[in-house]
Write a structure and sequence with these properties.
- By secondary structure, the protein is an alpha+beta fold.
- The protein has one domain (about 1-130): Gcn5-related N-acetyltransferase (GNAT) (Aminopeptidase, 3-Layer(aba) Sandwich).
- Helix content is about 30%, strand content about 35%.
- The protein has four helices and six strands.
- The protein has helices spanning about 1-10, 60-75, 90-95, 125-130; strands spanning about 15-20, 25-35, 40-50, 80-85, 100-105, 120-125.
- The chain has a three-stranded antiparallel beta sheet, covered by helices on one side.
- A hairpin with a 6-residue loop joins strand 1 (about 15-20) and strand 2.
- The radius of gyration is 15 Å and the shape is globular.
Length: about 130
Amino acid sequence: MERDKSNAEHGFTGTNLAITFKETDRLMGWCGLQPFEPIPDKKEIFYGLSPAFWNKGHMTEAAEAVLKYGFETLGLPEVVAGVKPENLASTAVLEKIGFSFQHILDEVPEDCEFYQGELFHKITRKQYQAS
C-alpha cells in the first residue's frame, strides 16, 4: 500500500492487487497492471507469488482476472510483459493466458537497465477475445 501511495504521487496509473487464499484470507502474492517502464505508453501485467503457493494454478487464475479487467473494463488495446529468461514459471503463466513472445529487450532507456535482456511478450485485445 505504501508503494502504491508513493507511485500515485509520481503519476502511477496502474493497480496492484493482493492475491489471497480464499479459505484463510492469507496473502499469497500480488498481480496488477502498470505502465511498462521501458515503453511507458504500453501497460504491463506484473505478478509475484509466495513459493508456498507455486505450481497450483493460483497465479494463472489471478493473471487471467487482471487481463480480463484490462481488456474488458479498461479497454486496453494490448497488454505486455517482460520476463527474465530464467523465470520459466512466469513465462509459462503468460503462455497459458494467451501471451506470445515478441523479442528480447536489447535496447532499453538508460534508466531502465533492469529490463535489459528480458523476454518481451504481448497479447492484443483481439487475440484475447479470440481465445
